[in-house]
């Protein structure tokens, strides 16, 4: 059976990549998840693992070729006939298996653009027995938490990276001893790969784009520090070396503000303080929010909405809705529908800036901000504009549970075009939400509060909510922002407009 190897998802706004290096050639035996080749984009370097064990067939995209997302890279011949291939290749690995059957526990794939993680928790201690696929530890990246399962059954012999340690994407975490020979043989080819690379020199060839960039900049390979596989020099390494050589003074001065000492604290107060290291997620949140303030021209406009009609509609149909769809009818589906409706009329709120271009999105991937014990995350509901009320409520409930459990993948938090943040669940009466880059708009919901309102010349008590739209004034004018918020208000105060598409 022939299995296709295709270009994986490359990240937001990245549509193509260059095949930098093939680590295997036709006829070579490959193990499942063994790295086949390396792709280079204008942002990151992506390794392509083997989707199955077998024998390398045809290489469709040669080194140096430019390929699009989901393009065919190669084929693998898998099945019974291919089984002897992998067994014959790692002959040198027999010695480790015979000498104690130890298996290295390595950092798993962390995702695009993620190069390191922090060991947050070890679930096992040295000397504990472990079963295959039993969770050993949890890693925390700047985006998600990753659980690391045991690659084989045995005894946890050594913990190489203790809790709190920062590890890169290829680091060893621990060692399991007493594993079966078959289980321990699997990591052996991976361990042998660097040695083979050193002897042949093929796997450490610099990326073609890096060679070109070095020639243009007049740099030699010795002047550039490679960060790619086995020390390969990548295009971004050359750019970093050129920037360092061209502007050494600013680079040296940049760390100065970060190194500023903390203001003195009285001795009696210092004894009652507690210093806790920021999680990687919290550090990333802080950096992204500050970057948003420094980059976008953020402005906020406000309005208020009478929730009488929405609350009455929800009260009338919530029991039937839950009975039929198996999920409760909340307010978020109404707000999501209202925002999708308004984004069609004011598309710049759903757009983003890319250099000197404005990218208009003809779809709505709605980000729903959710507070978790680890910090704020924004899972994305894709194509929310084409979903029903029930589908939206189910998606929000499912994403919210995964967020609280720390099970969201990076893909589930990427690609949002607009965000809704509900500070009302915490009792907030009014706030100014901050943009989630590269988005150009975010709607802030708040607490519903009974207030006296003048209706047809009479004072009546109505359930009112303040709405806040923060937007990037570089792309959204005041007229567009106000129009958007008014359309949301109109749709919520008369939900029938959503049915009539008015």
Task: Characterise the protein shown here.
This protein is an alpha+beta fold and 502 residues long. Helix content is 29%, strand content 27%. The chain contains 14 helices and 27 strands. Strands 17, 20, 23, 24, 25, 26 and 27 form a seven-stranded mixed sheet that branches. A four-stranded antiparallel sheet has the order 1-8-6-3. A hairpin with a 2-residue loop joins strand 21 and strand 22. The relative contact order is 0.09. The model is unreliable at 80-99, 180-203 and 248-257 (pLDDT under 50).
Provide keyphrases for this structure.
502 residues, 7-stranded mixed sheet, 4-stranded antiparallel sheet, 14 helices
| Number of E-type strands | 27
Report low-confidence residues grouped into runs of 5 or more: 80-99, 180-203, 248-257
In angstroms, what is the radius of gyration?
Answer: 27 Å
Total of DSSP H or I helical runs spanning 4+ residues: 14
Largest beta sheet, briefly?
7 strands, mixed
- The rough form would be described as globular
């Amino acid at each position: 059976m022939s299995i296709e190897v295709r270009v994986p998802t490359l990240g937001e706004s990245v549509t193509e990549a260059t095949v930098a290096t093939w680590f295997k050639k036709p006829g070579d035996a490959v193990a499942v998840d063994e790295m086949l080749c390396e792709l280079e984009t204008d942002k990151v370097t992506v390794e392509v693992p083997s989707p199955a064990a077998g024998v390398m067939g045809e290489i469709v995209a040669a080194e140096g070729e430019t390929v699009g997302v989901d393009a065919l890279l190669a084929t693998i011949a898998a099945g019974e006939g291919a089984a002897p291939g992998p067994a014959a290749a790692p002959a040198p690995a027999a010695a480790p298996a015979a000498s104690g059957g130890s298996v290295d526990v390595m950092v798993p794939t962390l995702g695009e653009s993620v190069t390191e993680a922090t060991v947050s928790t070890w679930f096992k201690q040295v000397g504990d027995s472990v079963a295959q696929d039993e969770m050993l530890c949890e890693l925390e990246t700047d985006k998600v938490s990753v659980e690391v399962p045991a690659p084989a059954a045995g005894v946890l012999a050594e913990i190489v990276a203790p809790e709190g340690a920062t590890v890169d994407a290829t680091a060893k975490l621990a060692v399991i001893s007493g594993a079966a020979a078959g289980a321990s043989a699997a990591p052996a080819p991976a361990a042998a790969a660097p040695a083979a690379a050193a002897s042949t020199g093929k796997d450490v060839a610099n990326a073609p784009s890096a060679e070109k960039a070095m020639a243009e900049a007049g740099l030699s390979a010795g002047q550039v520090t490679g960060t790619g596989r086995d020390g390969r020099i990548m295009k971004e390494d050359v750019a970093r070396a050129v920037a360092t050589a061209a502007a050494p003074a600013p680079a040296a001065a940049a760390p100065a503000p970060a190194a500023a000492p903390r203001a003195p604290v009285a001795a009696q107060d210092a004894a009652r303080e507690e210093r806790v290291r920021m999680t990687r997620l919290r550090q990333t949140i802080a950096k992204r929010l500050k970057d948003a303030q420094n980059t976008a021209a953020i402005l906020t406009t406000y309005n208020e909405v009478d929730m009488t009609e929405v609350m009455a509609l929800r009260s009338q149909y919530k029991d039937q809705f839950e009975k039929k769809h198996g999920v409760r009818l909340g307010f978020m589906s109404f707000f999501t529908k209202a925002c999708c409706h308004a984004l069609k009329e004011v598309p710049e709120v759903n757009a983003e800036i890319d250099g000197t271009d404005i990218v208009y999105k003809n779809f709505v991937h709605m980000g729903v901000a959710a507070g978790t014990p680890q910090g704020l995350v924004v899972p994305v509901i894709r194509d929310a504009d084409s979903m029903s009320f029930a589908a939206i409520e189910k998606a929000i409930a499912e994403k919210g549970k995964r967020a609280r459990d720390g099970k969201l993948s990076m893909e589930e938090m990427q690609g949002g075009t607009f965000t809704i943040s509900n500070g009302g669940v915490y009792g907030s009466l009014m706030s100014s939400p901050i943009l989630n880059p590269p988005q150009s708009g975010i709607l802030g919901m708040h607490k519903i509060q009974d207030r006296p309102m003048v209706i047809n010349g009479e004072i009546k008590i109505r359930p009112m909510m303040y709405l806040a739209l923060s937007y990037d004034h570089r792309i959204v004018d005041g007229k567009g922002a106000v129009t958007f918020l008014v359309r949301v208000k109109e749709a919520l105060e008369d939900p029938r407009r959503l049915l009539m598409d008015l």
